[in-house]
Amino acid sequence: MSVDGPSAKPVHRPDHPQSVGYTRAKRAVFFDQGQPLALEAGGRLSPVEIEYETYGRLSPSKDNAILICHALTGDAHAAGWDQSPEGPLRGYRKDKPGWWDEVIGPGKPVDTRRFFVICANVLGSCYGSTGPMSLNPATGRPYGLSFPVVTVGDWAKTSFLLLDRLGIDSLYAVVGGSMGGQQALEMALDWPDRVRRLIILSAAGRITAQGLSFNSVARHSIAGDPNFNGGDYYGGPPPLKGLAAARMLAHITYLSEESMGCKFGRRLQDKNTPDFTLTGVEFEVESYLKHQGESFVRRYDANSYLYITRAMDYYDAAVWGEGDMVKAASRILARTLVVSFSSDWLFPPELCRELVAAMCRSGRPVTYVDVPSRYGHDAFLVETETVSRLLDSFLKN
Amino acid sequence: MIKSNETKPSLDELKAFAADHIDASLVARMMELMANGEAGPDLSGGRWQDQVILSELPPGASVLDLGCGEGELLAELIRDLGVRGQGVELDPLAVMKSIDRGVPVLNIDLDRGLDVFADQTFDYVILESTLQTLKAPLAVLTEMLRVGRRGIISFPNFGHWRVRFDLTMLGRMPVTRGLPYGWHDTPNIHLFTLADFLDWCLTHQVTSTRGFGLENGRVRPLNPGDNLTIEEALLFLEKCPEGVIE
């Protein structure tokens, strides 16, 4: 998800009537005493801290909660303006509102006058929830690669723990795009009667071999950085070059051939003739990707990138049906909306259709929309008008 | 069961038929129908098929509506009869309207098949005024009766006297209430008559258990011989048990 680029759209300042205003991160701590959290991949974790934000008010009957699940490099800051964007990696919040501010707020599709909106940072991330950057209480040093492997299933479980803590039995809706869509799906499969509506944007029950490949190259790039040091780099220079290259690659997968062609074509960067340099920047698209890489490393941790891409890799919703996606889908009780975008090649429409087909074959009603768009995978964040219209309509019924 | 009263004759049979019948009965019949007036006022409210379906379907059925448009029928079926409804619609704007109505809808192309559905998933599969617009109508018909126990199909009848008159007497492509398009902009790319359709049913082990037709703006049960008089037809279809051909 490309939250790094300058936003071309007007943003709502904190005093705008449709902004949720200034926001403050909340923290919930679990497993700080007694047994540690047993993770799906076999690891154990204690304590488990979850950073989350909430907007709007929980109704007395606690039936108006919507959980928003963030994408790969996202965080709990989904809407409004961070009132204290201090701390490592959070400087970018000074210049822009939360990553889905366009759809969350008073009078917006996820209307905070009506809904109590929660967004929680996933385990393994670097935005406040326990992850490789957190201190390991056993050593007093950051976990680094001694952090246990986490999965999408773990994210679903910890999200339910957070809901328990907030006193919420069942969600009005869970909404997620890309990796967030995987988490949303997992929650509807894991605990079907706690999810009344499921909205999945640009996501499916698993990623393709091509998706696995992109993630693999990204991790290869990070692990191959001379500063990587087996993930134990917190006392010294971080593997920024490897992380930047990983982001550059990933960014290509978020766009489409057409959108890159329209935006950059083969234009040279600030010149009419090439310099015939092998390592310098010649083309506009090179400059753009370089900028994406450089701004990304100021806001993300390389180890988190390893853990979270791995979680995406491992995710396969079909495990709920012993490998049979139809059987798995038959578990879902939520009213479901799946949205794909025509030029998305990370979660292509065909892949989203596979999940939809599984639901149909299991006899479940489902709504599926394939939105014509040239913005590739990023469309779920860029095609705000269509996405807003869909969210608004589906959440109203 | 309704059977076709017309068959496809050879050229010799055609000559014999023409010699025996055309002056005597067919033209006379068409003149008579014409004398009774141009197709009468549309008393059906424009949604006669929906009204038939709403009155014929049992409560609680599961229904797949192919080409559900803006989801009006499914919304009513869900609200009034408590059906388990699923729509399929290609047009994105219509899909959005269906979602507004709370109707589950799949934004997929019927011509790409119904592979997303398992066999016999629905009690009824509806295809209203859409068959003649499909690239592969027979494939969709076959699929309908695979994923559903019963099919409900409606279509404009190209055998209606007005259509025949336009084409044979005037030598023009017919433009009627049921077929309102010009030759160049019509979505109707596979036109057929009620008799053609019933022939197909006969040769494909499909029976029509109930039929309704629109004549002069009024809906009535379908009778044999309606190929000349019915503007639009609606049939309930079932696959015959294996080996049984009625």
Descriptive report:
- The complex is a heterodimer of chains A (397) and B (246).
- Chain A is an alpha/beta fold and 397 residues long.
- Chain A has a domain at 208-314: Rna Polymerase Sigma Factor, Chain: A (Orthogonal Bundle).
- Chain A is 32% helix and 15% strand.
- Chain A has eleven helices and 16 strands.
- In chain A, α1 crosses α2 (179-190) and α3 (209-223) packs antiparallel against α4.
- Residues 1-5 of chain B have low confidence and may be disordered.
- Helix content of chain B is 34%, strand content 20%.
- The longest helix of chain B is centred in the first third of the chain and has 25 residues, at 11-35.
- In chain B, α5 links the parallel β4 and β5 (148-156).
- Chain B is globular and about 55 Å long.
- Chain B starts with 10 loop residues before the first helix and ends in a 7-residue tail after the last strand.
- By secondary structure, chain B is of the alpha/beta class.
- Chain B is built from seven helices and eight strands; from the N terminus they run ααβαβαββαβααβββ.
- Chain B has an eight-stranded mixed beta sheet, with helices on both faces.
- Chain B folds into two domains: 9-38, no CATH class; 41-239, Vaccinia Virus protein VP39 (Rossmann fold, 3-Layer(aba) Sandwich), CATH 3.40.50.
- The chains are: A alpha/beta (397), B alpha/beta (246).
- The A-B interface holds A 326, 335, 337, 353, 356-357, 360-361, 363, 365-372, 389-390, 393-394, 396-397 and B 62, 84-86, 92, 95-96, 98-102, 104-108, 115-118, 121.
Structure characteristics:
heterodimer; A: 397 residues; alpha/beta; two-stranded parallel sheet; globular; B: alpha/beta; Rossmann fold; 2 domains; 8-stranded mixed β-sheet; disordered N terminus
